[in-house]
Design a protein that fits this description.
The C terminus is likely disordered. This protein has about 575 residues and is an alpha+beta fold. Strands 2, 3, 4, 5 and 10 form a 5-stranded mixed beta sheet that branches.
Length: about 575
């Protein structure tokens, strides 16, 4: 019995190594299979995760190009700033509350604000999220001191757009702001990043590709504590290109000051030979610097308010009033129905088909030059009736009215309005009447003209019949010959000069200025106050500058409200504060 029992024990002892070997083989096989799974099936993903823990990508923002005036004065530049970011791939959701609370203490930023910025900045691509901008030096220093306890967060340099003259020329220069998540899908293939900014209006928008530059970055190897061990790769950011404008800083300053006398209005100053814009101002305006860090709620409310400060009034259509009498003069002579020397009687009240139309004076029988000088309504009522609406609106279109000017700024989205026979039938379903012809002949019908369009008109008269293309960046532009008769030009030029020497704008008959020529206009806008216009050029013989000034619902007359604005600009231009350019040779 003892022998048999011993045999069983001996057999069991012989089987133990086999069981242990089986277990070892099973465990080893499991480990091999797991390693195979991790390396072969999930290898690429795991290597990426390891690299994320070991390698950090630090993007470098490109600096936008500067915007300069015609003399090289800086109108727009960039300034350095520090921003706070979090790397979402290094900070899982469970670890965020702890990091957030430490950041709140170190940076002096509320936890609620950090939560909100992280939540709104989260993106599928895993790009770093901007938690705070425009950090103060003390905040940057405190972060550097505590960086070891703030793993996953970082402070990095950025460039913000800087407009040293504030609101000066804001409608021309434009502004930049961050791209939206919706825009990013379209812009990513063009080299944009989630935290990028883009030009929204003006030059910043029209020349975005020229100004923006290209991103760079560093590839850094870091240890478990987030400390940099070495630089694995380095690509310098490529700055954007500078852009020189045709604007003249001193003339632009004068235009902004001149507009301070009205609540709303616009001024355009242009080289009549080339179409180069020397100044363009619109009031009210805005400070583009507020978009660097984002407008406050109060600022947003003001920007979207009834005063519409972001609206460039140089591109908006308004009733041209008596400035339209240039077009009526052109229609009269160019149609052949009147001549340079034609005369018509004038009276305080012109009556036609039982209806009477007022005038501000009776000047006897006069011709085109004197009719322009005294701005006789009764004279131009008769001219309008002689030529008819077709010739009237034909002349308007010939001078560029009813069409975009071609300026490179995309903000020009309206071509004004020429309410002719076809327009009236389409809009009102009514036929044209003589009342429409009479009112249109003095610029009081359904006709809307932008200050920029009007500047082209005066340029064409002053340069001998070339319709220029306004532009704010020197580039090849079209200058189209419109072929006005010599007699038409003589009548217009003589009359526009007489406006200043003996007519409605004698304030510009100043011996300290070169001879000035131009035309006043006072546009009715009931029940609101009248609009005030003046368009003109100087020197009258060889003009180098055309100026159109406009006061929206300013009250008063063109000669008392708008003409003084023009005088201020001409004083600046012709007294050497800003060197007046010589007229370009005709092309």
């Amino acid at each position: 019995m003892l022998t048999a029992g011993g045999g069983h024990r001996h057999s069991g002892m012989q089987q133990q190594p086999a069981v242990l070997l089986t277990l070892v083989v099973l465990f080893a096989s499991a480990m091999v299979l797991r390693l195979g799974w991790l390396q072969l099936v999930q290898g690429q993903e795991n290597r990426a995760r390891a690299d994320e823990n070991r390698i950090r990508l630090v993007p470098r923002h490109p600096m936008r190009g500067r915007i300069l005036d015609r003399n090289g004065q800086v109108l727009v530049s960039s300034r350095l700033t520090y921003n706070l970011y979090v790397q979402p791939r290094q900070v899982p959701a469970a670890q965020w509350p702890g990091l957030r609370d430490r950041l709140a203490v170190v940076m002096g930023i509320s936890a609620a604000e950090l939560d909100q910025r992280r939540r709104t900045g989260t993106n599928e691509e895993g790009y770093r999220i901007e938690l705070a901008t425009n950090l103060k030096p003390q905040q940057v220093l405190r972060f550097r001191e505590q960086a070891a306890n703030l793993r996953g967060a970082e402070v990095d340099l950025d460039y913000l757009r800087a407009y040293p003259y504030g609101s000066l020329g804001a409608h021309v220069l434009g502004y930049t702001s961050p791209i939206t998540a919706e825009e990013f899908d379209k812009l990513e293939p063009k080299g944009y990043r989630m935290q990028d900014r883009i030009g929204r209006s003006g030059i910043e928008n029209a020349f975005e590709r020229h100004l923006r530059g290209e991103w760079g970055g560093q590839q850094l190897e870091v240890n478990a504590a987030g400390q940099v061990q070495r630089v694995l790769g380095d690509k310098q950011a490529k700055p954007g290109k500078d852009l020189r404008l045709t604007l003249d800083l001193e003339l632009q300053k004068t235009a902004e000051r001149a507009l301070a006398g009205v609540r709303k209005g616009a001024i355009v100053a242009m080289d009549p030979q080339t179409g180069a814009i020397r100044a363009m101002a619109s009031r009210p305006n805005f400070d583009p610097n507020i978009f660097a860090n984002g407008p406050t709620a109060a600022q947003w409310t003001a920007l979207g308010g009834p005063e519409a400060p972001m609206l460039n009034r140089a591109f908006q259509g308004y009733p041209p009033a008596s400035t339209f009498k240039l077009v009526t003069t052109i229609a009269g002579i160019e149609s052949g129905r009147m001549s340079e020397t034609s005369k018509l009687p004038t009276m305080n009240s012109f009556c036609h088909r039982g209806q009477c139309y007022g005038d501000h004076g009776s000047f006897g029988a006069i011709g085109f030059p004197m009719a322009l000088a005294v701005s006789s309504n009764s004279f131009y009522y008769q001219v309008g009736l002689k030529v008819g609406p077709k010739e009237l609106f034909k002349a308007a279109r010939r001078m560029g009215y009813g069409h975009l000017t071609g300026i490179e700024l995309k903000d020009e989205d309206g071509a004004g309005l020429l309410g002719d026979e076809a327009w009236k039938w389409k809009v009102y379903g009514e036929p044209w009447t003589v009342v429409d012809t009479i009112s249109s002949s003095i610029g009081q019908g359904p006709v809307l003209v932008t200050p920029l369009q009007m500047a082209r008109l005066y340029a064409a008269v002053s340069n001998g019949g070339w319709l220029v293309t306004p532009h704010v960046v020197e580039r090849p532009v079209e200058r189209r010959w419109i072929g006005l008769k010599a007699a038409t030009l003589r009548a217009l030029r003589k009359g526009l000069r007489m406006v200043v020497t003996e007519g409605t704008a004698t304030i510009l008959n100043d011996p300290t200025l070169p001879p000035v020529a131009g035309k006043t206009g006072t546009g009715e806008d009931p029940p609101r106050p009248d609009h005030a216009w003046f368009g003109g050029y100087a020197p009258a013989g060889k003009p180098t500058l055309v100026i159109v000034a406009f006061g929206e619902n300013s009250g008063g007359y063109g000669g008392t409200v708008a003409a003084p604005m023009v005088k201020a600009l001409m004083t600046t231009w012709f007294r050497g504060v800003s060197p007046a350019a010589k007229p370009a040779a005709p092309r």
